[in-house]
Amino acid sequence: MFFDKKAETMPRGELEELQLRRLRENAAACYEKSRLYRKKFDDAGITPDKITSLSDLRHIPFTVKDDFRDNYPFDMFVAPMGKICRLHASSGTTGKPTVVGYTKKDLDVWSDCVARLIVAVGAREEDIAQVAFGYGLFTGALGLHYALEKIGAAVIPMSSGNTEKQVMLMRDFGTTVLVSTPSYALHIGEVAGETGVSKDLKLRLGLFGSESCTVEMREQIEKSLDLFATDNYGMSEVMGPGVSGECEFRCGLHFNEDHFIPEIIDPATGEILPEGKTGELVITTLSKEAQPVLRYRTRDITSLTYEKCECGRTHARMEKTAGRTDDMLKIRGVNVFPTQVESVIMAINEVAPYYVIIAERENNRDTLEVKVELTDGSLLDSYARLEGLRDKIRHELRVTLGLDIKVSLVEPKSLERSLGKAKRVFDNRKK
Length: 431
Ligand code: DLL
Hints:
Distance between the termini: 50 Å
Number of strands: 21
Number of helices: 11
Mean pLDDT: 96
CATH architecture of the largest domain: 3-Layer(aba) Sandwich
Bound molecules: 5'-O-[hydroxy(phenylacetyl)phosphoryl]adenosine
CATH class of the largest domain: Alpha Beta
Strand order of the largest sheet: 4-3-5-6-7-8-9-14-13
Oligomer: single chain
């Protein structure tokens, strides 16, 4: 099913013509109205009229998160304040938040973009959708909210937290679609099981996003909530959710390529990588009025394919992200992504899908510890069985990562549950 079949299945030649026209308009607006972009262009010795083909995009300098921080709060806007009608911000763990502004048209395009993604995985007018993202400055909740309204679904603006009530309403209202982070969905499934309401739920579809989730974790969520779990991706700097998302075939996330140009670069050199190669995703907005963004370095690691999908969409697809360059841990010369650890843990029956990864520096040597919850606490009483399980997990991690990692098995339900984006990595070496 399509929300906007014409746009989503546009022949690539036509799509690229549209992209070029929008890119040229966008670059000209940035050059004319933004001090930041004018300086970037001038420093690189280019002017927007030099962009005559899509491959000229490579001459435009990158935009990075610090550009948003340095221009806090509103200096990244190219539209006057009178035209801005919504502000969001991404919290960030350090420093100032990154602020994003939207014009009326931006909000309309935003809800169209998200509507395409949710219709592509089967959301319908008849659905009752519970939004369990935190409402507020975070783009997730309102981004999904307005798209769900746009397709005519009944929206429950529940927000995150209050999980027992969340589950009760889900049962009483007959919620069919759950919108949340995958880690919160996992916790909702746990609480639904504990409170005995799982069997009364009518969920059929999960619209999950905002953090990485392995296929193994997704299967766990599907089992516990009995729904079809799907992935959508985005970031506040370029819009929020609505940048890319899976279709019903779940073979990569389709970009809304008429509104965004994706590129993959080598994160170390900035060099553009060819189709299929894994690197850092860079995004250029094509239609944002309030705050266009040129070549934003997302720090997310993925690859692209332009092959036509079985669903009929012609827009490029990105692979599910392996993680962020800032989440990647370098331990004794080996790169470790939390998703690799997750895949190993999820394949072991005796442990629950709750874990944390802790990096330390001891005697000038990096160490990594994985703490993971047992499903059955009685195992803690049997030293031999516990040791056996620990050895098995350590062995599997060594095979996957090529690293010796300390494994700690902890009591069931002892690790903190996530209500939004899970914090699973603690790199104490940075302290
Ligand atoms: O998380 C926007 C969003 C909300 C997307 C709801 C999807 C659903 P930020 O808070 O700015 O915006 O965080 C953006 O989150 O650079 C990725 O690292 C990560 N991220 C977002 N979606 C996914 C996903 C929102 N589906 C950052 N898979 C991005 C993996 C994701 N990581």
